[in-house]
């Protein structure tokens, strides 16, 4: 246990500063793994999922250290869902019983998803406000619930996951800027741009039946 504590303390020790805020080795490694993960997602490569698990573990530790409890809890969920998504991409099937392909939601399903996400946002925000010492409970809650939706859509190879991630990433930029996690702000700005790239790429794949 002592060795783990020493290792974690070392990982959370600042390596350099960015815009006046410290950047740790843990944040830097999570940054690199996350970019690699998105690159694999763009190409629909299953390697994305184990990379997501490792990056989520590292970000969970970072967010706990920053008192972003919604985001930290979300990383635990991400690890579980990443295991499910990995299986879906390797063995999952569509409604036709064929191997899972890139496809999209119906209009009704999009509306249901939007309403469910908006309903969950204030509930999670209230939970964070009353159950933790978070100083940004509702700002933390919005990308938390949005990310859950995005992760499940990604696991089922639904094109709309990229639109959800774009919105999540834009809100997350504000959240992490408030917390002074500038390297993570840069990461999520890159994610926002890559969400647009992914949206276009997956629409082409859907057209080709990929």
Describe this structure in words.
- There is one protein chain.
- The chain has 210 residues and is mainly alpha-helical.
- It has one domain (24-90, 111-208).
- 75% of the residues lie in helices and 4% in strands.
- The protein is built from eight helices and two strands; from the N terminus they run αββααααααα.
- The protein has helices at residues 2-11, 25-42, 48-65, 69-91, 107-131, 137-155, 161-178, 182-208; strands spanning 14-18, 21-24.
- The protein has a two-stranded antiparallel ribbon with strand order 1-2.
- β1 (14-18) and β2 (21-24) form a beta hairpin.
- α6 (137-155) packs antiparallel against α7 (161-178) and α7 (161-178) runs antiparallel to α8 (182-208).
- It is globular and about 50 Å long.
- The termini are far apart.
Question: TL;DR of this structure?
Answer:
By secondary structure, the chain is mainly alpha-helical. The chain has helices at 2-11, 25-42, 48-65, 69-91, 107-131, 137-155, 161-178, 182-208, and strands spanning 14-18, 21-24. The protein contains eight helices and two strands.
